[in-house]
Amino acid sequence: MRLTIFGATGRTGEHLVHQALTAGHQVTVVVRGEHSIQDHPQLRVVPADVMDPGSLTEAIRGADAVLDTIGSRDKGPTSVATDTALSITKAMESVGVRRIVLVSNSARIAGPGDDWFTRFVVKPLILRPLLRHSLDDMAAAEQAVRDTALDWTIIRAPQLTDKPAKGSYRTAIERNVTFGIRISRADLATCMLDAAADPQLIRAHINVAS
């Protein structure tokens, strides 16, 4: 596949780029300026302002799928995920690219699939207040993607770790993964690549965990 990856210099994005290249995909990454991404014959690096849809068209044009791992690292109010999702989807629509996989978070969704303690205590009383700004931003980013006519898949992940890949993961469609507490960034990257190639997951919310 021809893939365009946003957030490639982040901890999940680095795994995503490595795995995509190892699998033989043609990869385009969007960077803001200086970067430490190593050269690869199947890799194209495009400097661009992710908040400017017009500057993204070169990186997106001709892609089979766009993968968005961008999120905020700030603890205060933020709209980074939302603003970038709006910009990316607008650029996609302008060049006729339809497939997008967006990473979000499962902490704000308390419901089917959760065990009792997670559903009624951990998520609403602990995680939601603690992470409210980033979770609100991710919720708005999800909505921005859903409001398009694109072929989207939203992947909701739990706590991310830097542990080595297990080489497997569990998923649940339109519900939470029972006891889905965490997942390694490497396994999340694998899930994203798998989802991008699976047309059955178009317009679906996929929860993932180890």
Q: Your description of this structure?
A:
The chain is α/β, with parallel strands linked by helices and 210 residues long. The protein has a single domain, classed as Rossmann fold (3-Layer(aba) Sandwich), CATH 3.40.50.720. The chain contains six helices and ten strands, in the order βαββαβαβααββββαβ. It has helices at residues 11-22, 53-60, 80-95, 116-130, 132-146, 185-196, and strands at residues 2-6, 26-31, 43-47, 65-68, 99-105, 151-157, 159-161, 170-173, 182-184, 204-209. The strands form two sheets. Strands 3-2-1-4-5-6-10-8 form an eight-stranded mixed β-sheet, sandwiched between helices. A two-stranded parallel ribbon has the order 7-9. α1 crosses α6 (185-196) and α3 runs parallel beside α5. The longest helix has 16 residues, at 80-95. The two termini are 26 Å apart. The mean pLDDT is 95.
Using brief descriptors, characterize the structure shown:
globular; 10 strands; 8-stranded mixed sheet; 210 residues; alpha/beta; Rossmann fold
Write the layout of secondary structure elements.
Blueprint: E1 2-6, H1 11-22, E2 26-31, E3 43-47, H2 53-60, E4 65-68, H3 80-95, E5 99-105, H4 116-130, H5 132-146, E6 151-157, E7 159-161, E8 170-173, E9 182-184, H6 185-196, E10 204-209
Parallel strand pairs: 1-2, 1-4, 2-3, 4-5, 5-6, 6-10, 7-9
Antiparallel strand pairs: 8-10
Helix pairs in contact: 1-6, 2-3, 3-5
